[in-house]
Amino acid sequence: MKLIVSLLVLAGFVSSARNGIDFIQPVTVATFQCIKNAGYSFVIPRVFTSLGKVDTTGVNNVKNARAAGLTDVDGYVFPCLSTSCPSAANQVKAALDALKNAGTKVSTLWLDIERLAWPANHASNRAFIEAMVKEAQAYGQQVGIYSNYYNWQDIVGLDYHGQSNLMLWWAAYDGVKDFSKFAAFGGWTRPTIHQWEGTTAGPCGVSVDMNYVP
Q1: How far apart are CA 31 and CA 142, in angstroms?
Q2: pTM
């Protein structure tokens, strides 16, 4: 009997793990239904690009995913960092306004903090991220951070713990769907999502990054 109970507990633990994807290509409602039926329970389209524009394809993907019956639909902002870009707050505002105007929403808005054109000044980078977070929260939007140890180290410094109260989407292409190789940084001791595989042929013909939630 103890063995049976143990096996049932283990089965429940395993079945609670969830698979998800993030991507940038356009996806139809029918394809999202295929993705859902293939066992993927969450999706994260890009909704703002590093060129400083709303990703209208991504906004439509959010809408299509919800129309397909997916309820865990997030979005991510890839910040624009040149001097010609909108302010940090206005980038978040543009993304959230576009989603609202499209008649849809994201469960969590993730801020993609990875090495691409960030200045060397940690203080200004911290202020930029803080402004993005503040704007999202002013909208009542749940917000999280996408990053990893080395990106965080280079962009804001490992001693910066200012966002550790937010959820962490951890990027580490180690090919393993667990958190076993996670090394604490930025005040986070455990991530919420693990992006464990980069650009690959995903479900239903969509090119994706693979993600895991235990």
Answers
A1: 27
A2: 0.93
Cβ atoms of 113 and 168 closer than 8 Å = no
What distance in Å separates the CA atoms of residue 196 and residue 30, rounded to the nearest whole number?
A: 26
DSSP E strands: which ranges in the chain? 18-23, 40-48, 72-73, 75-77, 109-112, 143-147, 167-171, 193-201, 207-213
Which residues are 169's β-sheet partners? 146, 193
Task: Give me the half-sphere count of Cα atoms (radius 13 Å) on the Cβ side of residue 121.
Answer: 7
The full set of domain ranges for the chain reads 23-207
What architecture (CATH level 2) is domain 23-207?
Alpha-Beta Barrel (3.20)
> 85-127: per-residue pLDDT in tens?
999 999 999 999 999 999 999 999 999 999 999 999 999 999 9
Whether pLDDT at 7 is above 80: no
Catalytic residues, by residue number, are 22, 112, 114
Q: Which two tokens stand for residue 187?
A: 């005040």
Cα distances from 80 to residues 92, 115, 168, 176, 198, in angstroms, run 11, 12, 20, 31, 22
The encoded tokens of residue 82 equal 């040149």
